[in-house]
Design a protein that fits this description.
57% of the residues lie in helices and 17% in strands. By secondary structure, the protein is an alpha+beta fold. It has one domain (36-144). It has a three-stranded mixed beta sheet.
Length: 145
């Protein structure tokens, strides 16, 4: 008799604990799915915009990875882009890296769309035109291959 009551009690506790567990499983699944998205990186000079050939996964999108892609696209030598040291770049990078699964779930429940940034635009200043031209020439040369 006591054993039956104990088993019934454990059954109810298990059911109550499984509901939040499923909720966190869904959040984790959405988080992992979003981290696998590809992020395109663009260089923008005035109204002209070129895309770096490679994309980064959202989970790998960091300042050092972007610098590595830029260094590979630039070819040899060094360059200095003032935008990469500014607050706007940090803000955009944080926006790309952010992963608000709870907000996505609430947006899904409310049947609204959340715009998630899947591209990172690096703006170049007027004095960086020569750097932009070298990036553009190298990217076009790689595309021609």
């Amino acid at each position: 008799m006591i054993f039956d009551v104990f088993i019934e009690y454990l059954d109810k506790v298990t059911i109550l604990l499984s509901i939040p567990a499923y909720f966190f499983i869904v959040i984790n699944w959405m988080n992992n799915k979003k981290l696998q998205e590809d992020i395109s990186i663009f260089l923008q000079y005035k109204d002209e915009k070129i895309s770096l050939l490679q994309t980064l996964r959202r989970m790998h999108c960091s300042r050092s990875e972007i610098q590595g892609l830029l260094r590979a696209a630039y070819g040899g030598g060094t360059y200095k882009l003032s935008f990469l040291a500014g607050k706007e770049f940090s803000k955009r990078l944080k926006d790309v890296q952010s992963n608000d699964s709870l907000k996505d779930i609430f947006a899904w429940l409310l049947r609204t769309k959340r715009k998630k940034s899947c591209e990172l635009v690096i703006k170049l200043e007027e004095e960086e035109k020569a750097i932009y031209e070298k990036f553009k020439a190298n990217i076009e040369k790689i595309n021609a291959i």
